[in-house]
Write a structure and sequence with these properties.
- The complex is a heterodimer of chains A (254) and B (321).
- Chain A is mostly helical.
- Chain A has 10 helices and no strands.
- In chain A, helix 3 packs parallel to helix 6 and helix 5 crosses helix 6.
- Chain B has 2 domains: 227 residues, Rossmann fold (3-Layer(aba) Sandwich); 65 residues, Alpha-Beta Plaits (2-Layer Sandwich), CATH 3.30.70.
- Chain B has a 6-stranded mixed sheet with strand order 5-6-7-3-8-9, with helices on both faces.
- Chain B starts with 6 loop residues before the first strand and ends in a 5-residue tail after the last helix.
- The chains are: A mainly alpha (254), B alpha/beta (321).
- Chains A and B meet through helix 1 and helix 4 of A and helix 2, helix 4 and helix 5 of B.
Amino acid sequence: MSKLLSPNAGPASLPRRILQQGRYETITMLRNGEQLILAVVLPLLALAGLTVTPLLDGLGGPRVDVATPGILALCAMSTAFTGQGIATGFDRRYGVLRFLSTTPLGRGGLIAGKILAVLVVLFLQVLVVGAVAGLLGWQPRPEAWLPGLGILVLGAASFTALGLLVAGTVRPEATLAITNLLWILLGALGGIVVPAERLPAVAQGIVHFLPSGALGQALRDAFLLGIVPFPAVLVLLLWTLLAGAAAIRWFKWN
Amino acid sequence: MRSTDSPVLTIDGLIKDVGPLASLDGKMLRVVSGLSMTAGRGQITALLGANGAGKTTTLECAQGLQKRTGGTISLLGADPDTAGADLRSRVGVMLQDGGLPPSARPIPLLRHVAGMYRDPMDVDALVERLGIAQFSRTSVRRLSGGQKQRVALAAALIGNPEVLFLDEPSAGLDPHSRQVVFDLIAELRDAGMGIILTTHLMDDAERLADYVYIIDGGHNVAEGTVADLLRHDHSTDTAITDRTLFFDAPPGLEFKDVLGAGLQVLESRAGSYSITGALGPDDLAALTAWWAARNIMPASLRLEARSLEDVFLDISGRDLR
Protein backbone atom coordinates (compact mmCIF):
# COMPACT_ATOMS: atom_id res chain seq x y z
CA MET A 1 0.00 0.00 0.00
CA SER A 2 2.96 2.27 0.55
CA LYS A 3 4.48 3.96 -2.45
CA LEU A 4 7.71 5.02 -0.86
CA LEU A 5 9.79 7.71 -2.48
CA SER A 6 7.06 8.69 -4.86
CA PRO A 7 8.53 11.11 -7.40
CA ASN A 8 5.79 13.55 -6.43
CA ALA A 9 6.40 13.27 -2.69
CA GLY A 10 6.55 16.51 -0.79
CA PRO A 11 4.40 19.08 0.92
CA ALA A 12 1.34 20.68 -0.65
CA SER A 13 2.06 24.32 -1.51
CA LEU A 14 2.04 26.84 1.36
CA PRO A 15 -1.19 28.62 0.22
CA ARG A 16 -2.90 25.26 -0.15
CA ARG A 17 -1.84 24.16 3.35
CA ILE A 18 -3.04 27.41 4.92
CA LEU A 19 -6.35 27.30 3.01
CA GLN A 20 -6.82 23.68 4.03
CA GLN A 21 -6.23 24.50 7.72
CA GLY A 22 -8.37 27.66 7.51
CA ARG A 23 -11.23 25.71 6.01
CA TYR A 24 -10.98 22.98 8.62
CA GLU A 25 -10.88 25.47 11.51
CA THR A 26 -13.78 27.46 10.05
CA ILE A 27 -15.98 24.36 9.82
CA THR A 28 -14.98 23.36 13.37
CA MET A 29 -15.92 26.84 14.68
CA LEU A 30 -19.22 26.91 12.82
CA ARG A 31 -20.18 23.47 14.13
CA ASN A 32 -19.55 24.48 17.74
CA GLY A 33 -22.92 25.40 19.27
CA GLU A 34 -21.58 27.40 22.22
CA GLN A 35 -19.37 29.31 19.86
CA LEU A 36 -22.34 30.17 17.63
CA ILE A 37 -24.26 31.56 20.61
CA LEU A 38 -21.33 33.81 21.44
CA ALA A 39 -20.63 34.71 17.83
CA VAL A 40 -24.14 35.38 16.53
CA VAL A 41 -26.98 34.96 19.02
CA LEU A 42 -25.69 37.20 21.82
CA PRO A 43 -24.56 40.01 19.48
CA LEU A 44 -27.99 39.97 17.78
CA LEU A 45 -29.73 40.08 21.16
CA ALA A 46 -27.54 43.00 22.17
CA LEU A 47 -28.36 44.75 18.88
CA ALA A 48 -32.08 44.27 19.48
CA GLY A 49 -31.72 45.44 23.08
CA LEU A 50 -29.87 48.61 22.12
CA THR A 51 -32.41 49.53 19.45
CA VAL A 52 -35.45 49.20 21.73
CA THR A 53 -33.96 50.95 24.79
CA PRO A 54 -32.98 54.63 25.00
CA LEU A 55 -29.43 53.83 26.15
CA LEU A 56 -27.78 55.18 23.00
CA ASP A 57 -30.10 58.16 22.39
CA GLY A 58 -28.47 61.51 21.71
CA LEU A 59 -25.17 60.16 20.38
CA GLY A 60 -25.35 61.68 16.93
CA GLY A 61 -27.65 59.29 15.11
CA PRO A 62 -30.53 56.83 15.24
CA ARG A 63 -30.11 54.07 17.85
CA VAL A 64 -29.40 51.36 15.28
CA ASP A 65 -26.73 53.49 13.58
CA VAL A 66 -24.90 53.98 16.88
CA ALA A 67 -25.40 50.36 18.00
CA THR A 68 -24.41 48.38 14.88
CA PRO A 69 -20.70 49.35 14.63
CA GLY A 70 -20.30 48.37 18.30
CA ILE A 71 -22.03 45.05 17.65
CA LEU A 72 -19.61 44.35 14.79
CA ALA A 73 -16.75 45.07 17.19
CA LEU A 74 -18.34 42.67 19.69
CA CYS A 75 -18.45 40.00 16.95
CA ALA A 76 -14.72 40.43 16.37
CA MET A 77 -14.09 39.94 20.09
CA SER A 78 -16.34 36.82 20.20
CA THR A 79 -14.63 35.07 17.35
CA ALA A 80 -11.03 36.22 17.57
CA PHE A 81 -10.56 36.36 21.33
CA THR A 82 -13.02 34.04 23.06
CA GLY A 83 -13.73 31.55 20.25
CA GLN A 84 -10.24 31.09 18.87
CA GLY A 85 -8.69 31.40 22.32
CA ILE A 86 -10.74 28.54 23.76
CA ALA A 87 -10.32 26.37 20.65
CA THR A 88 -6.55 26.86 20.70
CA GLY A 89 -6.33 26.23 24.44
CA PHE A 90 -8.01 22.84 24.09
CA ASP A 91 -6.06 21.99 20.91
CA ARG A 92 -2.96 22.59 22.96
CA ARG A 93 -4.19 20.36 25.79
CA TYR A 94 -4.95 17.48 23.42
CA GLY A 95 -1.63 17.69 21.57
CA VAL A 96 -3.32 18.80 18.34
CA LEU A 97 -0.96 21.76 18.00
CA ARG A 98 2.06 19.52 18.44
CA PHE A 99 0.82 16.92 15.96
CA LEU A 100 -0.09 19.48 13.28
CA SER A 101 3.23 21.23 13.70
CA THR A 102 4.98 17.97 12.73
CA THR A 103 3.06 17.87 9.44
CA PRO A 104 4.05 20.10 6.50
CA LEU A 105 1.62 22.69 7.90
CA GLY A 106 4.09 23.62 10.67
CA ARG A 107 3.62 26.19 13.41
CA GLY A 108 3.48 29.19 11.10
CA GLY A 109 0.90 27.57 8.84
CA LEU A 110 -1.17 26.58 11.84
CA ILE A 111 -1.33 30.18 13.11
CA ALA A 112 -2.06 31.45 9.59
CA GLY A 113 -4.90 28.92 9.27
CA LYS A 114 -6.37 30.09 12.57
CA ILE A 115 -6.24 33.74 11.50
CA LEU A 116 -7.87 32.83 8.19
CA ALA A 117 -10.69 31.01 10.02
CA VAL A 118 -11.26 34.05 12.25
CA LEU A 119 -11.53 36.29 9.20
CA VAL A 120 -13.95 33.97 7.39
CA VAL A 121 -16.23 33.62 10.44
CA LEU A 122 -16.04 37.37 11.03
CA PHE A 123 -17.05 38.00 7.42
CA LEU A 124 -20.10 35.75 7.91
CA GLN A 125 -20.94 37.59 11.13
CA VAL A 126 -20.77 40.95 9.30
CA LEU A 127 -23.21 39.59 6.70
CA VAL A 128 -25.69 38.36 9.32
CA VAL A 129 -25.43 41.37 11.65
CA GLY A 130 -25.44 43.78 8.69
CA ALA A 131 -28.59 42.17 7.26
CA VAL A 132 -30.45 42.20 10.60
CA ALA A 133 -29.35 45.79 11.29
CA GLY A 134 -30.50 46.72 7.78
CA LEU A 135 -33.93 45.34 8.58
CA LEU A 136 -33.88 47.46 11.76
CA GLY A 137 -33.13 50.53 9.66
CA TRP A 138 -29.31 50.73 9.72
CA GLN A 139 -28.04 53.02 6.99
CA PRO A 140 -24.25 52.98 6.97
CA ARG A 141 -22.39 55.49 4.77
CA PRO A 142 -21.33 53.48 1.67
CA GLU A 143 -17.87 55.06 1.75
CA ALA A 144 -17.46 53.84 5.35
CA TRP A 145 -17.29 50.15 4.41
CA LEU A 146 -13.69 50.09 3.23
CA PRO A 147 -12.11 51.81 6.27
CA GLY A 148 -14.69 50.11 8.51
CA LEU A 149 -13.72 46.61 7.38
CA GLY A 150 -10.04 47.54 7.61
CA ILE A 151 -10.53 48.63 11.23
CA LEU A 152 -12.50 45.44 11.94
CA VAL A 153 -9.66 43.28 10.58
CA LEU A 154 -7.13 45.19 12.69
CA GLY A 155 -9.35 44.69 15.74
CA ALA A 156 -9.63 40.98 14.95
CA ALA A 157 -5.83 40.84 14.70
CA SER A 158 -5.36 42.39 18.13
CA PHE A 159 -7.97 40.12 19.72
CA THR A 160 -6.54 37.03 17.99
CA ALA A 161 -3.09 37.87 19.36
CA LEU A 162 -4.57 38.35 22.84
CA GLY A 163 -6.58 35.12 22.58
CA LEU A 164 -3.53 33.12 21.49
CA LEU A 165 -1.47 34.71 24.28
CA VAL A 166 -3.98 33.51 26.89
CA ALA A 167 -4.45 30.10 25.23
CA GLY A 168 -0.71 29.49 25.01
CA THR A 169 0.19 30.36 28.57
CA VAL A 170 -2.51 29.01 30.92
CA ARG A 171 -4.54 25.80 31.19
CA PRO A 172 -7.52 25.49 28.82
CA GLU A 173 -10.03 25.66 31.69
CA ALA A 174 -8.46 28.96 32.73
CA THR A 175 -8.51 30.16 29.12
CA LEU A 176 -12.22 29.33 29.02
CA ALA A 177 -12.88 31.29 32.20
CA ILE A 178 -10.66 34.27 31.36
CA THR A 179 -11.85 34.79 27.78
CA ASN A 180 -15.54 34.38 28.65
CA LEU A 181 -15.28 36.67 31.66
CA LEU A 182 -13.40 39.32 29.71
CA TRP A 183 -15.94 39.04 26.89
CA ILE A 184 -18.71 39.90 29.35
CA LEU A 185 -16.73 42.62 31.19
CA LEU A 186 -15.36 44.27 28.06
CA GLY A 187 -18.68 43.81 26.28
CA ALA A 188 -20.54 45.63 29.07
CA LEU A 189 -17.96 48.11 30.33
CA GLY A 190 -15.11 48.07 27.81
CA GLY A 191 -16.52 50.75 25.53
CA ILE A 192 -17.24 48.27 22.79
CA VAL A 193 -21.05 48.51 22.37
CA VAL A 194 -21.71 51.29 24.87
CA PRO A 195 -19.57 54.35 24.03
CA ALA A 196 -17.25 55.76 26.68
CA GLU A 197 -19.43 58.81 27.35
CA ARG A 198 -22.27 56.56 28.58
CA LEU A 199 -20.04 54.60 30.96
CA PRO A 200 -19.30 55.35 34.64
CA ALA A 201 -16.71 58.09 35.10
CA VAL A 202 -14.01 55.68 36.34
CA ALA A 203 -14.28 53.60 33.18
CA GLN A 204 -14.22 56.57 30.79
CA GLY A 205 -10.52 57.36 31.21
CA ILE A 206 -9.46 53.75 30.69
CA VAL A 207 -11.57 52.44 27.84
CA HIS A 208 -9.85 54.52 25.16
CA PHE A 209 -6.70 52.56 25.84
CA LEU A 210 -8.39 49.14 25.75
CA PRO A 211 -8.65 47.22 22.48
CA SER A 212 -12.41 46.96 23.07
CA GLY A 213 -12.89 50.71 23.52
CA ALA A 214 -10.55 51.59 20.66
CA LEU A 215 -12.25 49.18 18.25
CA GLY A 216 -15.77 50.24 19.25
CA GLN A 217 -14.95 53.92 18.91
CA ALA A 218 -13.03 53.52 15.65
CA LEU A 219 -15.92 51.64 14.04
CA ARG A 220 -18.52 54.13 15.28
CA ASP A 221 -16.44 57.04 13.97
CA ALA A 222 -16.01 55.31 10.63
CA PHE A 223 -19.66 54.34 10.11
CA LEU A 224 -21.34 57.32 11.84
CA LEU A 225 -19.01 60.19 10.98
CA GLY A 226 -17.05 58.86 8.04
CA ILE A 227 -13.69 59.48 9.70
CA VAL A 228 -10.82 57.22 10.75
CA PRO A 229 -9.72 58.16 14.29
CA PHE A 230 -5.96 57.71 14.28
CA PRO A 231 -5.49 57.54 18.08
CA ALA A 232 -7.89 54.57 18.30
CA VAL A 233 -6.23 52.88 15.31
CA LEU A 234 -2.84 53.43 16.96
CA VAL A 235 -4.09 51.83 20.18
CA LEU A 236 -5.28 48.77 18.22
CA LEU A 237 -1.98 48.59 16.38
CA LEU A 238 -0.03 48.73 19.65
CA TRP A 239 -2.15 45.98 21.23
CA THR A 240 -1.65 43.81 18.16
CA LEU A 241 2.11 44.26 18.22
CA LEU A 242 2.50 43.86 21.98
CA ALA A 243 0.18 40.86 22.33
CA GLY A 244 1.63 39.30 19.17
CA ALA A 245 5.19 39.68 20.46
CA ALA A 246 4.19 38.34 23.88
CA ALA A 247 2.42 35.37 22.29
CA ILE A 248 5.49 34.57 20.17
CA ARG A 249 7.70 34.88 23.26
CA TRP A 250 5.61 32.94 25.80
CA PHE A 251 3.33 30.60 23.83
CA LYS A 252 3.90 27.03 25.05
CA TRP A 253 3.13 24.41 22.43
CA ASN A 254 2.78 21.59 24.95
CA MET B 1 27.22 3.40 18.17
CA ARG B 2 26.35 1.24 15.21
CA SER B 3 26.95 2.37 11.68
CA THR B 4 24.33 1.81 9.03
CA ASP B 5 24.63 2.18 5.29
CA SER B 6 21.95 4.81 4.97
CA PRO B 7 20.96 6.32 8.29
CA VAL B 8 17.70 8.27 8.36
CA LEU B 9 18.40 9.56 11.87
CA THR B 10 21.69 10.14 13.66
CA ILE B 11 21.73 11.53 17.19
CA ASP B 12 25.07 12.28 18.80
CA GLY B 13 25.46 13.27 22.45
CA LEU B 14 21.96 14.64 22.86
CA ILE B 15 21.40 16.71 25.98
CA LYS B 16 18.06 18.17 27.02
CA ASP B 17 17.38 20.20 30.15
CA VAL B 18 13.85 21.18 31.16
CA GLY B 19 12.70 23.67 33.72
CA PRO B 20 13.34 25.55 35.85
CA LEU B 21 11.14 23.33 38.02
CA ALA B 22 9.53 24.44 41.27
CA SER B 23 9.88 20.86 42.57
CA LEU B 24 13.67 21.19 42.22
CA ASP B 25 13.92 24.61 43.93
CA GLY B 26 13.90 26.33 40.58
CA LYS B 27 16.71 24.21 39.12
CA MET B 28 16.82 22.67 35.65
CA LEU B 29 16.26 18.94 35.25
CA ARG B 30 18.46 17.04 32.76
CA VAL B 31 16.08 14.53 31.14
CA VAL B 32 18.45 13.45 28.37
CA SER B 33 22.18 13.28 29.12
CA GLY B 34 24.40 12.28 26.23
CA LEU B 35 22.20 9.96 24.23
CA SER B 36 23.56 8.72 20.89
CA MET B 37 21.88 6.50 18.32
CA THR B 38 21.35 5.89 14.64
CA ALA B 39 18.36 4.48 12.77
CA GLY B 40 18.55 3.00 9.31
CA ARG B 41 16.33 2.92 6.27
CA GLY B 42 14.26 -0.26 6.04
CA GLN B 43 14.82 -0.99 9.72
CA ILE B 44 12.81 -0.80 12.92
CA THR B 45 14.89 0.79 15.67
CA ALA B 46 13.47 0.65 19.19
CA LEU B 47 14.28 2.82 22.18
CA LEU B 48 13.50 0.57 25.14
CA GLY B 49 13.36 1.93 28.65
CA ALA B 50 11.24 2.59 31.71
CA ASN B 51 8.85 5.54 31.89
CA GLY B 52 10.84 8.71 32.49
CA ALA B 53 14.02 7.37 30.87
CA GLY B 54 14.01 10.18 28.28
CA LYS B 55 12.66 8.28 25.26
CA THR B 56 9.81 10.65 24.40
CA THR B 57 11.98 13.73 24.92
CA THR B 58 14.58 12.27 22.56
CA LEU B 59 11.93 11.66 19.91
CA GLU B 60 10.49 15.16 20.34
CA CYS B 61 13.95 16.70 19.90
CA ALA B 62 14.38 14.66 16.70
CA GLN B 63 10.94 15.80 15.48
CA GLY B 64 11.73 19.46 16.13
CA LEU B 65 9.01 19.69 18.80
CA GLN B 66 11.54 20.47 21.52
CA LYS B 67 14.76 22.44 21.20
CA ARG B 68 17.76 20.47 22.41
CA THR B 69 20.21 21.83 24.97
CA GLY B 70 23.23 20.16 23.39
CA GLY B 71 24.43 17.53 20.93
CA THR B 72 23.65 17.10 17.26
CA ILE B 73 20.71 15.57 15.42
CA SER B 74 20.62 14.78 11.73
CA LEU B 75 17.22 13.73 10.38
CA LEU B 76 17.43 12.81 6.68
CA GLY B 77 20.57 14.93 6.62
CA ALA B 78 18.93 18.05 8.08
CA ASP B 79 18.71 19.67 11.51
CA PRO B 80 15.13 19.26 12.75
CA ASP B 81 15.30 22.59 14.62
CA THR B 82 15.65 24.57 11.39
CA ALA B 83 13.78 22.21 9.07
CA GLY B 84 10.97 23.38 6.83
CA ALA B 85 7.91 21.86 5.22
CA ASP B 86 10.01 19.76 2.82
CA LEU B 87 11.61 17.79 5.65
CA ARG B 88 8.33 17.58 7.58
CA SER B 89 6.62 16.07 4.53
CA ARG B 90 9.11 13.18 4.61
CA VAL B 91 8.65 12.40 8.32
CA GLY B 92 5.55 10.87 9.94
CA VAL B 93 4.92 11.30 13.66
CA MET B 94 2.63 9.43 16.01
CA LEU B 95 2.65 11.15 19.40
CA GLN B 96 2.14 9.31 22.66
CA ASP B 97 -1.05 11.24 23.43
CA GLY B 98 -2.32 10.98 19.86
CA GLY B 99 -2.68 14.70 19.15
CA LEU B 100 -6.10 14.27 17.55
CA PRO B 101 -8.89 16.85 18.04
CA PRO B 102 -11.60 15.23 20.22
CA SER B 103 -14.54 16.57 18.23
CA ALA B 104 -13.25 15.30 14.86
CA ARG B 105 -14.39 12.15 13.10
CA PRO B 106 -11.60 9.90 11.85
CA ILE B 107 -12.09 10.08 8.07
CA PRO B 108 -12.59 13.86 7.66
CA LEU B 109 -9.60 14.34 9.97
CA LEU B 110 -7.43 12.02 7.87
CA ARG B 111 -8.54 13.75 4.67
CA HIS B 112 -7.64 17.07 6.27
CA VAL B 113 -4.14 15.89 7.18
CA ALA B 114 -3.76 14.30 3.72
CA GLY B 115 -4.39 17.76 2.24
CA MET B 116 -1.05 18.93 3.66
CA TYR B 117 0.84 16.65 1.22
CA ARG B 118 1.32 16.77 -2.53
CA ASP B 119 0.93 13.02 -3.02
CA PRO B 120 -0.62 11.44 0.08
CA MET B 121 -1.57 7.80 0.58
CA ASP B 122 -5.06 6.75 -0.37
CA VAL B 123 -7.20 7.53 2.71
CA ASP B 124 -9.75 4.80 1.94
CA ALA B 125 -7.11 2.10 1.61
CA LEU B 126 -5.44 3.13 4.85
CA VAL B 127 -8.80 3.30 6.67
CA GLU B 128 -9.65 -0.18 5.38
CA ARG B 129 -6.27 -1.63 6.27
CA LEU B 130 -6.32 -0.35 9.84
CA GLY B 131 -9.96 -1.28 10.45
CA ILE B 132 -10.95 2.35 11.00
CA ALA B 133 -14.04 2.09 8.77
CA GLN B 134 -15.98 0.25 11.47
CA PHE B 135 -15.87 3.25 13.81
CA SER B 136 -15.54 6.04 11.25
CA ARG B 137 -18.76 7.75 12.36
CA THR B 138 -17.61 8.08 15.97
CA SER B 139 -15.85 11.23 17.16
CA VAL B 140 -12.28 10.86 18.43
CA ARG B 141 -13.52 11.70 21.95
CA ARG B 142 -15.62 8.52 22.07
CA LEU B 143 -13.05 6.11 20.60
CA SER B 144 -11.32 3.50 22.74
CA GLY B 145 -7.60 3.86 23.37
CA GLY B 146 -6.79 1.28 20.71
CA GLN B 147 -9.08 2.89 18.13
CA LYS B 148 -7.51 6.31 18.76
CA GLN B 149 -4.09 4.75 18.42
CA ARG B 150 -5.00 3.34 14.99
CA VAL B 151 -6.28 6.73 13.79
CA ALA B 152 -3.10 8.38 15.07
CA LEU B 153 -1.01 5.82 13.18
CA ALA B 154 -3.01 6.48 10.02
CA ALA B 155 -2.48 10.23 10.45
CA ALA B 156 1.27 9.66 10.81
CA LEU B 157 1.34 7.50 7.66
CA ILE B 158 -0.95 9.51 5.42
CA GLY B 159 1.90 11.57 3.95
CA ASN B 160 3.75 8.45 2.87
CA PRO B 161 6.85 9.30 4.92
CA GLU B 162 10.39 7.97 4.58
CA VAL B 163 10.83 8.10 8.34
CA LEU B 164 8.17 7.16 10.85
CA PHE B 165 8.30 7.99 14.58
CA LEU B 166 6.03 5.93 16.83
CA ASP B 167 5.88 6.82 20.52
CA GLU B 168 4.58 3.76 22.41
CA PRO B 169 2.70 2.35 19.40
CA SER B 170 1.06 -0.54 21.22
CA ALA B 171 -0.36 1.52 24.11
CA GLY B 172 -4.02 0.70 24.59
CA LEU B 173 -4.17 -1.86 21.77
CA ASP B 174 -6.06 -5.10 22.25
CA PRO B 175 -4.26 -8.24 20.97
CA HIS B 176 -6.05 -8.20 17.61
CA SER B 177 -5.41 -4.50 16.82
CA ARG B 178 -1.89 -4.98 17.98
CA GLN B 179 -1.36 -7.73 15.42
CA VAL B 180 -2.89 -5.54 12.69
CA VAL B 181 -0.67 -2.60 13.65
CA PHE B 182 2.49 -4.70 14.01
CA ASP B 183 1.92 -6.40 10.64
CA LEU B 184 1.55 -3.00 8.98
CA ILE B 185 4.66 -1.63 10.67
CA ALA B 186 6.69 -4.65 9.56
CA GLU B 187 5.36 -4.28 6.01
CA LEU B 188 6.33 -0.61 5.91
CA ARG B 189 9.81 -1.52 7.14
CA ASP B 190 10.10 -4.09 4.36
CA ALA B 191 9.04 -1.41 1.87
CA GLY B 192 12.05 0.66 2.98
CA MET B 193 10.66 3.02 5.61
CA GLY B 194 12.98 3.89 8.49
CA ILE B 195 10.96 3.36 11.67
CA ILE B 196 11.92 4.59 15.12
CA LEU B 197 9.72 3.60 18.04
CA THR B 198 9.81 3.85 21.80
CA THR B 199 8.44 1.24 24.11
CA HIS B 200 8.62 0.09 27.69
CA LEU B 201 7.29 -3.32 26.65
CA MET B 202 9.88 -6.02 26.05
CA ASP B 203 7.43 -7.92 23.96
CA ASP B 204 7.11 -5.03 21.48
CA ALA B 205 10.86 -4.82 21.09
CA GLU B 206 11.29 -8.58 20.79
CA ARG B 207 8.57 -8.90 18.17
CA LEU B 208 9.31 -5.81 16.09
CA ALA B 209 12.76 -4.35 16.48
CA ASP B 210 15.70 -4.98 14.20
CA TYR B 211 17.90 -3.02 16.57
CA VAL B 212 17.34 -1.98 20.18
CA TYR B 213 18.80 0.84 22.24
CA ILE B 214 18.24 0.35 25.94
CA ILE B 215 17.74 3.77 27.53
CA ASP B 216 18.18 4.42 31.22
CA GLY B 217 18.63 7.69 33.09
CA GLY B 218 18.64 9.79 29.92
CA HIS B 219 21.21 7.93 27.84
CA ASN B 220 21.75 4.66 26.01
CA VAL B 221 23.24 1.95 28.24
CA ALA B 222 23.24 -0.97 25.79
CA GLU B 223 22.40 -1.67 22.19
CA GLY B 224 22.22 -4.47 19.68
CA THR B 225 19.83 -6.80 17.96
CA VAL B 226 17.45 -8.51 20.36
CA ALA B 227 19.41 -11.77 19.90
CA ASP B 228 22.71 -10.02 20.67
CA LEU B 229 21.33 -8.42 23.79
CA LEU B 230 19.96 -11.73 25.07
CA ARG B 231 23.22 -13.59 24.47
CA HIS B 232 25.47 -11.10 26.16
CA ASP B 233 25.89 -10.35 29.86
CA HIS B 234 26.50 -6.62 30.02
CA SER B 235 27.56 -6.62 33.66
CA THR B 236 30.43 -9.10 33.15
CA ASP B 237 30.78 -8.71 29.38
CA THR B 238 30.48 -12.44 28.80
CA ALA B 239 28.26 -14.62 26.64
CA ILE B 240 25.20 -16.00 28.35
CA THR B 241 23.73 -19.47 28.00
CA ASP B 242 21.47 -19.25 31.07
CA ARG B 243 18.00 -20.66 31.03
CA THR B 244 15.38 -21.06 33.72
CA LEU B 245 13.21 -24.13 34.20
CA PHE B 246 9.99 -23.51 36.12
CA PHE B 247 7.79 -26.32 37.41
CA ASP B 248 5.06 -27.01 39.96
CA ALA B 249 5.26 -30.23 41.98
CA PRO B 250 4.70 -31.41 45.58
CA PRO B 251 6.43 -29.09 48.08
CA GLY B 252 9.70 -29.80 49.86
CA LEU B 253 11.47 -31.87 47.19
CA GLU B 254 15.27 -32.18 47.53
CA PHE B 255 16.82 -32.90 44.12
CA LYS B 256 19.82 -30.57 43.93
CA ASP B 257 22.21 -33.57 43.99
CA VAL B 258 20.94 -34.96 40.69
CA LEU B 259 21.72 -31.70 38.83
CA GLY B 260 25.06 -30.46 37.53
CA ALA B 261 27.09 -27.94 39.53
CA GLY B 262 26.41 -24.21 39.35
CA LEU B 263 22.64 -24.37 39.01
CA GLN B 264 20.47 -22.31 41.33
CA VAL B 265 17.42 -24.07 42.73
CA LEU B 266 14.69 -21.98 44.29
CA GLU B 267 11.30 -22.93 45.76
CA SER B 268 9.74 -19.47 45.60
CA ARG B 269 6.37 -20.67 46.94
CA ALA B 270 5.60 -24.07 48.40
CA GLY B 271 5.64 -26.45 45.39
CA SER B 272 6.74 -23.76 42.90
CA TYR B 273 10.31 -24.43 41.77
CA SER B 274 12.78 -22.72 39.47
CA ILE B 275 16.20 -23.92 38.34
CA THR B 276 18.42 -21.23 36.79
CA GLY B 277 21.80 -21.52 35.12
CA ALA B 278 23.57 -23.22 32.23
CA LEU B 279 20.97 -25.99 32.03
CA GLY B 280 22.01 -28.80 29.67
CA PRO B 281 20.22 -31.84 28.26
CA ASP B 282 21.90 -34.00 30.93
CA ASP B 283 20.28 -31.92 33.66
CA LEU B 284 16.86 -32.34 32.11
CA ALA B 285 17.35 -36.08 31.67
CA ALA B 286 18.54 -36.48 35.27
CA LEU B 287 15.65 -34.47 36.63
CA THR B 288 12.95 -36.29 34.68
CA ALA B 289 14.49 -39.66 35.62
CA TRP B 290 14.44 -38.60 39.28
CA TRP B 291 10.74 -37.70 38.93
CA ALA B 292 9.96 -40.99 37.17
CA ALA B 293 11.67 -43.03 39.93
CA ARG B 294 9.41 -41.33 42.50
CA ASN B 295 6.27 -41.27 40.34
CA ILE B 296 6.16 -37.45 40.42
CA MET B 297 4.34 -35.73 37.58
CA PRO B 298 4.79 -31.92 37.62
CA ALA B 299 1.56 -29.98 37.34
CA SER B 300 3.29 -27.52 35.02
CA LEU B 301 6.67 -27.30 33.31
CA ARG B 302 8.20 -24.36 31.44
CA LEU B 303 11.68 -23.63 30.08
CA GLU B 304 12.62 -19.99 29.42
CA ALA B 305 15.62 -18.30 27.94
CA ARG B 306 16.60 -14.84 29.16
CA SER B 307 14.25 -12.06 28.23
CA LEU B 308 15.03 -8.43 27.51
CA GLU B 309 13.57 -7.77 30.93
CA ASP B 310 16.47 -9.73 32.48
CA VAL B 311 18.91 -7.81 30.28
CA PHE B 312 17.45 -4.53 31.50
CA LEU B 313 17.65 -5.73 35.10
CA ASP B 314 21.33 -6.71 34.63
CA ILE B 315 22.20 -3.31 33.24
CA SER B 316 20.21 -0.95 35.39
CA GLY B 317 19.66 -3.02 38.50
CA ARG B 318 15.98 -2.12 38.22
CA ASP B 319 12.83 -3.59 36.77
CA LEU B 320 11.65 -2.05 33.56
CA ARG B 321 8.27 -1.02 34.93
